[in-house]
Specification:
With 256 residues, the protein is mostly helical. The chain has one domain. 73% of the residues lie in helices and 2% in strands. The chain is built from 10 helices and 2 strands. A two-stranded antiparallel sheet has the order 1-2. β1 and β2 (56-57) form a beta hairpin. The longest helix is centred in the N-terminal third of the chain and has 31 residues, at 58-88.
């Protein structure tokens, strides 16, 4: 397509990747260590007491959820910290005067976060292989789900970065909303283990469908309706993307 600043978008992504490797201990090593601990505790220790879920070993069943946690944290923290620091250091002005449309700015920041999330996900996959927890029945679907979920939380991170007035506020949404909904989304257990009311409530939790989609692509087992989950993922992407584009176009907190 003519008129799209592909070089500019690629530059934003490259800048983000370089920054990721500059602070690799925080951006790459830390999530891998956390995932290894999750796999060991929930997979090995607890898994030794739970034979299997839906015919697969417990460690294999919970691994997609552990992977999803890493994807969410990587993409959200990348987008939120990047944009907030640009606002804080006033370097956002350089991006505003560059030949970017608001849509290109949004995609550049989002793709930068997706790139980090993909790097983290592949490193976590390598750890999972060491624990014997990884199967991958549909690699294409896995990459699509990973990129889509990373995109959702990248956009959410952008919105939080626009709203925040301090570094402490960057973590408020993650602490009070994202983390609780993630743990209540069936990442460490089957929803069939829940009482009927709790199971019904879980089916309204979008994080359940995020984990269920990744799980289906990895082990071929899903507990929810994949069609409903796909529609939810697409819907959330469109809603968040529209919100970010509108705020960028309006110049909310990015213009003096």
């Amino acid at each position: 397509m003519m008129g799209i600043n592909y070089i500019g978008i690629a530059t934003i992504v490259e800048r983000g990747i370089r920054r990721t490797f500059r602070v690799a201990t925080q951006t790459l090593i830390a999530p891998v260590v956390s995932s290894a601990l999750y796999i060991f505790i929930f997979g090995t220790v607890i898994g030794s007491r739970i034979q299997s879920i839906d015919g697969v070993p417990y460690i294999t069943f919970v691994f997609p959820g552990v992977l999803m946690l890493s994807i969410i944290n990587a993409s959200f923290s990348s987008a939120s910290s990047t944009l907030y620091f640009m606002r804080f250091a006033r370097s956002i002005e350089e991006l505003l005067i560059a030949p970017f449309s608001y849509l290109e700015m949004m995609f550049g920041l989002m793709l930068e976060s997706i790139a980090r999330a993909l790097m983290v996900s592949f490193l976590v996959l390598a750890v999972g292989v060491l624990f014997g927890a990884v199967t991958l029945v549909n690699p294409v679907a896995f990459i699509v789900y990973t990129a889509a979920i990373a995109g959702i939380f990248a956009l959410l991170g952008i919105l939080v970065a626009l709203w925040s007035e301090s570094f402490e506020q960057l973590q408020m949404l993650n602490t009070f909303i994202i983390t609780p909904l993630t743990y209540l989304g069936g990442i460490f257990y089957s929803i069939e283990m829940l009482p009927p009311l709790a199971k019904s409530i879980t089916l309204f939790n979008p994080f359940f469908y995020f984990a269920d989609g990744i799980r289906s692509s990895m082990i071929g087992v899903n507990e929810g309706d994949l069609f409903v989950g796909t529609l939810m993922i697409i819907g959330v992407l469109l809603i968040l993307g529209t919100a970010v584009f509108f705020l960028f176009k309006k110049g909310w907190k990015i213009r003096s």
